[in-house]
Amino acid sequence: MHVQHPVTENQIPRFVNKHVCAVLHDGSHHYGTVTGCERGKLILNGHLLKQQTKAETLKKKAKKRGARISVKQDNTAKTAAIGLSPAQSPAAPLAPYIPPAEYKAIELEKIALLFALFP
Could you tell me the pTM of the whole model? Predict the structure, then answer.
């Protein structure tokens, strides 16, 4: 486990795409995936914001053109038919499951400790 204290913008790139815990000076903990550092803030789960804005722009473009948007279906129905949940499907990853989290931008001055949860 790599612990970083104090946290500066120069040290953030080594944590990009890693699951981390940011402990603030007030004692609160924030968990997520580091996606970058912008304007003196640590960005956690920024990929979610990018996915949401991409989907919204696609919908707006399609609406302007009058086209319909096709949505891909997942394998839930197929795995349910054979008695497996999506998490138990044969294609399930072997890495630990990290549930999706919300987008967070935390000021670097407020972070007391930052450490990676998995190597």
Answer: 0.56
